[in-house]
Every structure is written in structure tokens, then in C-alpha cells.
Amino acid sequence: MRENDYCCPICKTDLDFYSRYPNYVCSRCVVKVADEDGRALSFFNEGMYGGFVAVYTDTNERRDSHTCYIDEIKCYADEAYTGGIVVQVNT
Length: 91
Known about the structure:
single chain, 91 residues, mainly beta, three-stranded antiparallel β-sheet, 8 strands, 4% helix, globular
């Protein structure tokens, strides 16, 4: 295994390694994010210049937390450095 080989910590899909996000989750797993009770979540940038917003997918109600779960694995969602959202497994 090369030093920069990496796979999604949830499903083990091969991905590119990014040192800024050493535990990031693949896009196929990100669609499964939920809160601690299993309610589906969606994440967005707040506006054109960034910011982080979490909402419940079924109601669009805002959630004031970055913590989420994928297959019962605790993760953390946040604004990515260059925009967008990144979800990483908590370590």
C-alpha cells in the first residue's frame, strides 16, 4: 500500500488521499447521514461565501450540530476549505 492510498472509512471504497481531510467519507456514504435517532440529514453552505447549515431532510428544519452518524459510526460534518461540505469519521 502506497503512503497516499486511502479508502472510505465506512465502505472501504478506494479514494484519493487528502491530508487536510484524513478521515473523509465518500459521497455514496454521505447520502446516508443521520442524527443519533436515525433522522436523515442534509448539509449545505449557508451562502455564496460559505458557512455551514445542517437540516433534517424530511422537514428542512435546521439542526444546530455538526455531529452525524453513518451506519451507526459517529462522524462530523463541516464546511470544506474551498467550499462545499466534508464529512469525516470522528477519531
